[in-house]
Design brief:
The complex is a heterodimer of chains A (204) and B (222). Chain A has seven helices and nine strands. Chain A is an alpha/beta fold and 204 residues long. In chain A, a hairpin with a 2-residue loop joins strand 1 and strand 2. The longest helix of chain A has 16 residues, at 163-178. The two termini of chain A are 25 Å apart. Chain B has 222 residues and is mainly alpha-helical. Chain B has helices at residues 2-18, 20-41, 45-67, 70-77, 80-86, 91-119, 125-152, 159-170, 172-186, 192-221. The A-B interface holds A 48-52, 70-71, 73-74, 76, 78, 80-89, 93, 97-98, 100-103, 127 and B 3-4, 7-8, 10-11, 14-15, 18-19, 77-80, 82-90, 94, 218, 221-222.
């Protein structure tokens, strides 16, 4: 269960939001809406602990995330604007390195399977600098295929994807919610997630 | 704990191998700067022997500075640094891995080539051994202290110059004891004392600097 209480965000001189709170149970998705600059990404960065809130508290399973530290981060999967892939490494090496660094078990077969699902079969041994923007995004999203951590924080996951990939990703997120996972995401596109309870939060 | 350090070292070494131009250019910079001095000063063995420790060490500091700005900048630009900060272990361990990897690709090659360059300065065999030992012990400290500077200047415009201004003064103890070890050997006093101090500085900076860098990185990520 993820709870946010009375959050306040100040960037520079501007107060983006104040008194913001929500509660997210297993199997629920929080869809953040709002125009550009309304503080969606700031809120996500607050939730994952990279940006300390001006006021308020975020709790994971009833305990403040700040007090939990590593325990909270072990349950958290974050996908940001940036793909977090290395141009010099191949898609396969990127997936395996990301899993190792996050202290997760990922076998090479699982990684190959994930890359096949995102439509990168046959390109797993090609350095990522030779891939297109959309394909790089798919490499980043391939992390989600075998992801078992319960809380997903996704910042604009549908950007740069074609319609087939959007359908595939909604399926992945639905599956995650059905297994009792939670997700918080921002998107400007109209996307239908078939499973789970969808909550909407509008900023600004 | 060691698994995460090993994972970071493994990844950074693999990346360095795919980008060999970076390693080679810092090494060639070192070789060329050191080789210019005997050519400029002329064949005066006594003078060259006196100058050798200082010249080699200053060149080693500058060569290390060349690769420092990229220590965190690449990871910051492509978003990998965020993921490393969100991994379920202290960021200081990740930075320790990065510092060790940085030393392996930038400090170690300098130590290995230094005895060859020392011959140009007519150093004795004893002095060459001490020189190699001193650079071997001193360069981990350069990587460690440099990581703090690289983390503090991350994402700043003109960070490279600022980095030099921040880090080079902090390198002075390493320079003094590193060059002093070779000087003492040449003059017959023995360089053991200097080498012990260098080892102490190296251990302290590889042990503590990553945690200071991690604190600076967290501020840079806000």
């Amino acid at each position: 269960m993820l709870e946010a209480d009375n959050l306040e965000c100040v960037r520079g001189e501007r107060r983006l939001f104040t008194g913001l709170g929500f509660r997210l149970e297993a199997g629920e998705l929080l869809n953040l809406q709002g125009r550009n600059g309304s503080g969606k990404t700031s809120l996500l960065r607050m939730l994952i602990g990279l940006l300390p809130p001006e006021a308020g508290e975020i709790r994971w399973n009833g305990v403040s995330t700040k007090a939990q530290g590593d325990e909270f981060r072990a349950d958290l999967c974050y996908l940001g604007h940036l793909n977090a892939i290395k141009e010099e490494l191949t898609p396969l090496e990127n997936l395996l390195a990301a899993a190792h660094l996050a202290d997760e078990e990922l076998s090479e077969d699982d990684a190959l399977d994930a890359l096949e699902q995102v439509g990168l079969a046959g390109r797993e041994d090609l350095a990522c600098k030779y891939l297109s923007q959309g394909q790089k995004r798919r490499v980043a999203l391939a992390r989600l295929v075998k992801e078992k951590r319960p809380l997903w924080i996704l910042d604009e996951p549908f950007v740069a994807l074609d319609t087939a990939a959007v359908d595939w990703l909604t399926g992945i997120i639905s599956g995650h919610l059905q297994r009792g996972g939670m997700a918080v995401m921002t998107t400007h596109q109209q996307v239908k997630i078939p499973a789970g309870t969808i909550r909407e939060l509008r900023l600004g | 704990m060691f698994r995460i350090i090993a994972a970071v070292i493994g990844r950074d070494l693999k990346l360095a191998m795919r980008r060999q131009a970076d390693i080679v250019s810092a090494l060639f910079f070192f070789i060329i700067v050191v080789s210019l001095f005997p050519l400029g000063i002329g064949p005066e063995p006594d003078l060259l022997r006196k100058l050798a420790p200082g010249v080699l060490w200053v060149a080693a500091l500058l060569a290390t500075m060349l690769s420092l700005p990229r220590l965190f900048a690449d990871d910051h630009r492509d978003g990998t640094l965020e993921q490393l900060a969100l991994a379920p272990h202290p960021l200081g361990l990740v930075v320790t891995g990065k510092v060790i990897a940085h030393w392996l690709v930038s400090g170690l090659p300098l130590a290995l080539i230094a005895p060859v360059l020392g011959i140009q300065f007519d150093l004795s065999a004893d002095a060459l051994v001490v020189l190699t030992g001193a650079i071997l012990l001193g360069t981990p400290a350069l990587s460690g202290i440099g990581a703090i500077g690289a983390a503090l200047t991350l994402g700043l415009r003109g960070g490279g110059v600022l980095l030099s201004l921040l880090v080079l003064p902090l390198y002075i103890p390493v320079l003094i004891f590193g060059a002093g070890a070779v000087d003492a050997t040449v003059s017959g006093l023995g360089g053991e004392g200097h080498l012990s101090l260098l080892a102490a500085i190296a251990f302290a900076s590889v042990g503590f600097a990553p945690w200071a860098s991690a604190a600076a990185l967290k501020i840079a990520l806000e």
